[in-house]
């Protein structure tokens, strides 16, 4: 049931879902194909998942596409992924704009090539008037890197006299994170059976609910997302408090 129609205004479904899209390589391997074959299949899954969001009252969808640690992979895989990102953005820009999706990127752009960042900028610009679903793509994203970059800028503001050390609290730091305009994720899903976070949204997911599922990302469907949203609705989020 969509969360906004719950009696008493009690939200049931997750408003912000974040997904660690893992298992592309193993999916390809199982078919005797190169890892990039799995990445292409994985990219094709994104559209169905994004399109399922409005029906599930998911307003924010954040997906982990490439981590700051993924540069450790072979040059062939990294180059293939970068090419795939360029192709995906080029191919999907129009559909995303027309479907009411607002796209943002998080992560450090400095290490990405200029052709890719130009496409990222354009996609953000062309969808900035949309509000149906907010899709955030984490590309060259690592939570520790994000916190380090945030701290650097915060320290600069202190050095320049714009911020007093006494005013730094847990409301201040998130304003410097890449996710500053997003609510915290309610539900974090990781596919492929690995039960770890791999440097994804560490600060933001302090009180998120987690789902670690065995499905490999290229096999993930809207139906599975709907099932996970439903079981989220049955969870009791206490945030440290005791219910009266
Ligand atoms: C996730 O799939 C996509 C990226 C990390 C870019 P993997 O490539 O990690 O797939 P597995 O985990 O090796 O199966
Ligand atoms: C996390 O998956 C990063 C993405 C899904 C983009 P990895 O496959 O890189 O994580 P590890 O190496 O298994 O921790
Ligand atoms: Mg993996």
Describe what this molecule looks like in 3D.
This protein has 244 residues and is α/β, with parallel strands linked by helices. It has a single domain, classed as Undecaprenyl pyrophosphate synthetase, CATH 3.40.1180.10. The chain is built from 6 helices and 6 strands; from the N terminus they run E-H-H-E-H-E-H-E-H-E-E-H. A 6-stranded parallel beta sheet has the order 3-4-2-1-5-6, sandwiched between helices. Helix 4 links the parallel strand 3 and strand 4. It starts with 15 loop residues before the first strand and ends in an 11-residue tail after the last helix. It binds 3-methylbut-3-enyl trihydrogen diphosphate (2 copies) and magnesium ion. One 3-methylbut-3-enyl trihydrogen diphosphate binds next to helix 1.
- The total beta strand count reads 6
Spans of at least 5 consecutive residues whose pLDDT stays below 50 are 1-5
**What share of the residues does DSSP label as strand, in percent?**
5-15%
Helicity range: 25-40%
Please outline the helices and strands.
Elements: E1 16-20, H1 24-29, H2 35-52, E2 60-67, H3 75-98, E3 101-106, H4 114-126, E4 133-141, H5 143-159, E5 187-190, E6 209-212, H6 222-233
Parallel strand pairs: 1-2, 1-5, 2-4, 3-4, 5-6
Helix pairs in contact: 2-3, 3-4
Bound molecules: 3-methylbut-3-enyl trihydrogen diphosphate (2 copies) and magnesium ion.
One 3-methylbut-3-enyl trihydrogen diphosphate binds next to strand 2.
């Amino acid at each position: 049931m969509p969360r906004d129609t719950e009696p008493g205004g009690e939200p049931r479904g997750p408003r912000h879902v974040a997904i660690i899209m893992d298992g592309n390589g193993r999916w390809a391997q199982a078919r005797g194909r190169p890892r990039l074959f799995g990445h292409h299949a994985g990219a094709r899954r994104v559209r169905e998942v994004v399109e399922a969001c409005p029906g599930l009252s998911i307003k924010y969808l954040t997906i982990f596409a490439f981590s700051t640690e993924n540069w450790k992979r072979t040059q062939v895989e990294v180059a293939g992924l970068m090419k795939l990102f360029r192709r995906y953005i080029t191919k999907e820009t129009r559909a995303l704009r027309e479907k009411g999706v607002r796209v943002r990127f998080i992560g450090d752009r400095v290490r990405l090539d200029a052709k890719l960042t130009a496409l990222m900028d354009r996609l953000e610009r062309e969808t900035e008037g949309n509000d149906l679903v907010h899709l955030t793509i984490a590309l060259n994203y690592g939570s520790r890197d994000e916190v380090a970059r945030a701290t650097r800028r915060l320290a600069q503001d202190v050095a320049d006299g714009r911020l007093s050390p006494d005013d730094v609290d847990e409301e201040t730091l998130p304003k410097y994170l890449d996710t500053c305009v997003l609510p915290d994720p309610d539900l974090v899903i990781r596919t492929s059976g690995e039960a770890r976070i791999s440097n994804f949204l560490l600060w933001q997911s302090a009180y998120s609910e987690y789902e670690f599922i065995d499905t490999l990302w290229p096999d993930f469907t809207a139906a599975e997302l709907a099932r996970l949203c439903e079981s989220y609705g049955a969870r009791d989020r206490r945030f440290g408090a005791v219910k009266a």
